[in-house]
Structure formats: C-alpha cells, structure tokens
Design brief:
single chain, alpha/beta, 6-stranded parallel sheet, 3-stranded antiparallel sheet, globular, binds ligand BV8
C-alpha cells in the first residue's frame, strides 16, 4: 500500500478546547502529579492503585458529557475524507476524540485510555469502567494483571514501524498541539524533512522543535487548524 501523502502528528493541545488538560501548560497534568508517580512501569509496580486512580479519573472525565471533538478534530477528519493522496493521523493522545470526529486512518502511538491490557495474556479489551488491581481479565480470567492500554515513559511506543514507513513516504507533515518534549514523537519532523516533506507546525506557541519546521502558524487549534486545512484542500502551498 502506498504511503499516505499527508502525515499529521497530534498532541494534547488539539484536545484542549474540548476540555481535556494538556501536560506541560502551567495548568497541565504534570503541574499536579509527577510522571514518576503515575506514568512509568516502576510507578505501577510500586503503587498500582494510585496509577489506576490517575487513569480512572481521566477516563471518567473523557466519558463526561461535555467532552466532544472540536473543529480541529473535525477538520482532520474532513482532510482524510477529501484528500486524494491519503492521510495518516498519528496521535500521542489517549483520548478518543479523533475517532469520534470521523478520522479512520489513525494510530494511537501512546495507547488508548478506553482500552485495558492484561499483563498475563496480553489481551486488549474495551474499557469504560474503573480499573482496579483486583479486577479479573475478561479474556483469561486471571486477576491482578489489568492495566490501562497506555504507553508509559520507558516503554516502547506503538506502531513505530508503520510510522517510520509513513514518514519516509509523505509529502506533507503537520504537527498540531504538541510541545515537542517527548521522544520519539518529537523527532518525527526531522525524519519527514529528510524525506523531503513540507513541514508545518500548528500550535498555540512555538514548540521545543519549532526551528525544525519550514512553516509555523500559532493560535488555538480549533481556529487555525480548520483554516489551514481549508487552504490545503484548495491546493494552497
Ligand atoms: C521510549 C502516556 C524507548 C499516556 C505518555 C529514559 C528511559 C527511557 C526513555 C527515556 C528516558 N529519558 C528520555 C526518554 C525518552 C522518553 C521521553 O521523551 N522523555 C521526555 C520527558 C524527555 N520517551 C519515552 O519514554 C517513550 N518511550 O523512548 O522508548 C525508545 C527509544 C527509541 C525509539 C523508540 C523507543 C514513551 C513516551 C510515551 C510516554 N507516555 N503518555 C498518558 O498518560 O497520556 S507521553 C505524554 O506526553 C502524553 O502522552 C503526551 O501525549 C505526550 C507529549 O505531550 P504533548 O502531547 O506534546 O502535550 P504537552 O502538554 O507537552 O504540550 C501541549 C502543547 O499544546 C503545548 O505546546 C501547548 O502550547 C499547546 N496547546 C495548548 N493549548 C492549545 C495548544 N495548541 C493548540 N491549541 C490549543 N488550544
């Protein structure tokens, strides 16, 4: 299958106007809890109940009535529907807002909040309720092994082979709502540039990697992403 001509990388900033917190903004998640306490395998081994509560609270928040895809998510779904060369959205986000907006060719490289994984049989299952240490796996029945299907720091992100192939073959690489702090995602723009792609950053403010992009536009995603996608679909360079 030919590589999609457009690859989009999204981060927490694209979901901010849907009511979900980012990580490194002053009011972000890492201003309230430490990565070492809730987002590493060591943290889970040390205090699984604490890690479960961190993700259970975010899962309940995501499933709350007021959290909906915003115009930026919907603009990406429209780009995929109308772009002849194909679009792949690689998201660092674990929310389900891209799916709910209609994106189909979508890769959750850091996992998904609405899925669980069993440490014993590795089965991945839909998860909309709280996870607990005592919970038995719906597939193998073993208890004590359920975790969120989420990639923690120090763990291998998902889909890296497919991502590498897409970056090598794309003509346009767009990063939206990411601070460029976390690797390997923060290095994708360099891979796309080496492949000769047009690189664009759409963010609220310059990211750590802003100098690696050929073009940058700043403002809230729900405003600047639909405008940029309109231009792109009209053939704007
Ligand atoms: C890996 C989990 C090996 C789910 C996340 C020691 C040991 C091992 C690895 C490392 C190490 N030291 C460093 C590393 C690498 C490490 C890393 O990068 N650390 C950083 C902190 C230095 N990476 C890893 O561990 C990764 N695995 O390296 O494995 C390997 C090696 C080589 C090749 C392959 C593999 C695993 C990283 C995944 C960790 N899990 N999340 C969860 O709890 O959500 S990462 C976490 O940060 C989130 O997933 C988030 O997606 C991600 C990135 O953050 P952003 O999305 O960018 O969010 P942020 O708040 O930072 O920025 C938001 C941006 O939006 C801002 O710029 C803001 O201005 C903007 N914004 C705000 N509002 C708006 C807006 N933009 C537009 N509109 C708005 N309205």
């Amino acid at each position: 299958m030919r590589a999609p001509s457009i690859v989009v990388l999204t981060g927490a900033g694209i979901s901010k106007e849907s009511g979900l917190d980012t990580f490194r903004d002053p009011d972000g998640i890492w201003a309230r809890v430490r990565i070492e306490d809730v987002a590493t395998p060591e943290a889970f081994a040390r205090d699984p109940a604490r890690v479960h509560e961190f993700y259970n609270a975010r899962r309940r928040g995501l499933l709350g009535a007021q959290v909906e895809p915003n115009p930026a998510h919907r603009a990406l779904a429209r780009l995929e529907a109308e772009s002849p060369g194909g679009v792949l959205v690689i998201t660092q986000n674990i929310d389900n807002l891209h799916e709910r907006a209609g994106s189909r060719n979508l890769l959750h490289m850091h996992g998904e909040l609405l899925k669980s994984r069993c440490a014993h049989c590795k089965a991945i299952a839909a998860c909309t309720d709280d996870l607990t240490v005592a919970l038995a796996c719906p597939a193998c029945g073993a208890a004590g092994g359920m975790r969120p299907h989420v990639v923690w720091f120090g763990e291998m992100p998902l889909g890296l082979d497919a991502i590498e192939a897409a970056l090598a073959g794309c003509e346009t690489f767009i990063a939206i709502g990411t601070s460029g702090n976390v690797y390997p995602a923060a290095g994708f723009v360099a891979d796309a540039a080496v492949a000769g792609a047009r690189t664009i950053e759409l963010n609220l403010e310059p990211s750590m990697g802003h100098s690696l992009f050929a073009e940058c536009r700043y403002g809230p995603a729900a405003t600047i992403v639909p405008a940029f996608i309109d231009e792109l679909l009209k053939g704007g360079r």
